[in-house]
Amino acid sequence: MRSVAVAKGIPRYQEIARELRRQIDSGSYPTGYSLPSEAQLAERFGVAPGTVRQALGVLVDEGMLSARRGARKVVMRSSVSSRGFNEFRSFAQWAYGQGRTPGGLVVEQRWREPSENDVEALRLAEGDEVLQVLRVRTLDGEPILLERTRYTPQVGRKVAELRPDSPSVTNQLRELFGIEFAAADHVFSAAAADDVDARHLRLAEGDPILRHLRLSRDRWGTPLERSEDHYVSGAVSLAVSNAQGNNSLGWISAPGR
């Protein structure tokens, strides 16, 4: 194992954590691999076992190592295995990351009076309208997702200028207008296809779907859009990594429950 350079002002355990992270990312310690014992790592790095324990704790908090006490730590994932924000928020970027070909087509687009939920979530002023867009998304030519998105007036005016078959609205808004999505809240639940889903996703009404509610904001926290996305059952799976000290996963009650 290569020696670890000690950076001035950085605690030794953080240097060790960085080196172990590098080795996990490089594949030297692949997923499922048991790391050497704390005593072995302490000898290798020339530090006390307590320092190694601190370093391992950092990687446990990041979700990279198992949290079981009294046993050797097992590699759960690399730091680069979790997808970036844009790939998670953007269907097209996720598809490109999977080596697939995304497509999109706007089937309905109109300005409309916002609902009470729109006004609250998007922080709309009195008299504001929202641009409502119904868009079918395809993966390698197959329809797998129906997006029902409502944009704020400022964003909606820009969306209205885009081509209806643009594969990535996210990319177009960023590249053409400097509008960048920087944060989002997500809620997932099981649901049944309605008549609109059935018509555009080649489903029967009542077929199971995955419902994804999303509220997106810019870097200053200003709401940009809220969307209800319906995925064909079995088309995608959601993978989540969480750990003590690094947990953004939470359960909530379904409406009416």
What do these coordinates show?
The protein has 257 residues and is α+β, with helices and mostly antiparallel strands. It has two domains: 12-75, Winged helix-like DNA-binding domain superfamily/Winged helix DNA-binding domain (Arc Repressor Mutant, subunit A, Orthogonal Bundle); 91-232, Chorismate lyase-like (Chorismate lyase, 3-Layer(aba) Sandwich). The protein has nine helices and six strands. It has a six-stranded antiparallel sheet with strand order 1-2-3-6-5-4.
| Topology as a string of helices (H) and strands (E) | HHHHHEHEEHHEHEE
Question: How many separate domains make up the residues?
Answer: 2
Q: Looking at CATH, which topology of the largest domain would you report?
A: Chorismate lyase
CATH superfamily of the largest domain: Chorismate lyase-like
Rg value: 23 Å
Query: DSSP strand (E) fraction?
Result: 15-25%
Q: Ends: how far apart?
A: 55 Å
List the helices and strands and how they pair.
Layout: H1 12-26, H2 38-45, H3 49-61, H4 85-89, H5 91-97, E1 102-112, H6 116-122, E2 130-139, E3 142-151, H7 153-159, H8 169-177, E4 183-192, H9 195-201, E5 208-217, E6 223-232
Antiparallel strand pairs: 1-2, 2-3, 3-6, 4-5, 5-6
GO molecular function: DNA binding; DNA-binding transcription factor activity
Keywords: DNA-binding, Transcription, Transcription regulation
Protein name: GntR family transcriptional regulator
